[in-house]
Design a protein that fits this description.
alpha+beta; five-stranded antiparallel sheet; two-stranded antiparallel ribbon; 50% helix
Length: 336
């Protein structure tokens, strides 16, 4: 990553908010020239975080509004896929083969991450495989363009993306990298594990000890950061992820969880006609869900580690894809 000279300056001399705002409006020369929103944002970053106004003006002078980003985030939601359609998108022979190669290539680092954080190597590999196909699809948008566009030209979620823009500028300063060079998805997700800037600053780690956190081109840092994320979100070492369930009776659907959070205990589900394939404590809270697979309805109980996976993406099917890909990776690695 390219170092931006002078970007590490943390506390620029105070020159007065009013004069900064006026200078910003005059100096911006790109798509955000004269934008009151940008002027206000730069003033906040200068006042609250000690940024040098001239440097931020230089960044936003180069930032570009991308209509393709607005089109992507505004397009109508796709029809919700059934599990029988969703699963084949992520659990493929090509992804499994590439995952086995990635695991072998980074075996020592993955083993260290598993030892330090308690997160199995196959789960870390699976996340990177689902998110970016092991770095093949990390996004081609400059993060500054994505977050500026969504902060200043997408009112429905402007507050969220303005927070991420703030976090992005802070991480660029902390890591001493040029914010104009970093790339990601159209929503600003970055690197092999597709961390948003706020997740980067909260959970990413310098796993190779070189003094910088680089999840874009350094698999060691990406691996450690995924493990750190899961540990901080409640992953329990050695515990299972899900348990298949058999169901009977006319109260079965009353046990289904609305949303993601564990809502009923194993004992409560048993009363409603659920029985787990595994020995689970009656007081254990679970996420109870049904998937429509190739062979009909499947009933599952998601345990604490399943819930941890949903912290990465609030989707039952996403978490199941990550889990089942991780299982496939273990099997494939054992065969080869």
């Amino acid at each position: 990553m390219q170092v931006m000279r002078g970007w590490a300056t943390r506390y620029a001399p105070w020159v007065g908010l009013v004069s900064i705002l006026g200078t910003v409006q005059e100096a911006l020369a790109g798509d955000y020239e004269g934008s009151p929103q940008v002027a206000e944002f730069v003033g906040e970053m200068t006042r609250d975080y000690g940024f040098a106004g001239e440097q931020l003006m230089g960044v936003f002078r180069e930032a570009e509004r991308k209509q393709s980003i607005l089109d992507a985030i505004s397009k109508p939601a796709e029809r919700v896929k059934q599990w029988s359609e969703y699963r084949p998108m992520f659990i493929t022979d090509a992804r499994i083969a590439r995952g086995v190669d990635f695991w072998r290539q980074h075996e020592a680092v993955l083993a260290r991450a598993e030892q330090e954080y308690g997160v199995p190597a196959q789960v870390i590999v699976s996340i990177i495989g689902v998110e970016t196909f092991f770095g093949r699809n990390t996004g081609n948008f400059r993060v500054i363009d994505a977050l500026s566009t969504l902060s200043f030209d997408y009112p429905p979620r402007a507050e969220f993306f303005r927070k991420e823009l703030r976090e992005f500028l802070l991480l660029a300063r902390e890591e001493q990298v040029d914010p104009l060079t970093l790339k990601g998805s159209y929503a600003g997700a970055m690197g092999l594990p597709q961390f948003m800037p706020s997740s980067f600053r909260a959970y990413a780690v310098d796993f190779d000890g070189d003094g910088h956190i680089n999840i874009w081109t350094n698999p060691d840092d990406a691996i450690g950061s995924v493990a750190s994320y899961f540990k901080r979100h409640g992953w329990v070492a050695g515990e299972p992820v899900v348990s298949r369930a058999d169901v009977r009776g006319d109260q079965v659907d009353e046990g289904l969880t609305t949303g993601i959070e564990p809502a009923k205990t194993v004992g409560e589900l048993r009363v409603l006609g659920w029985s787990s394939h595994d020995a689970l404590r009656d007081d254990m809270p679970v996420t109870a869900f049904r998937l429509e697979g190739d062979n009909g309805s499947e009933y599952w109980m998601g345990l604490k580690n399943f819930y941890a996976i949903t912290r990465y993406n609030r989707s039952v099917m996403y978490a199941m894809a990550v889990h089942q890909l991780s299982e496939q990776l273990v099997q494939a690695r054992g065969v080869k």
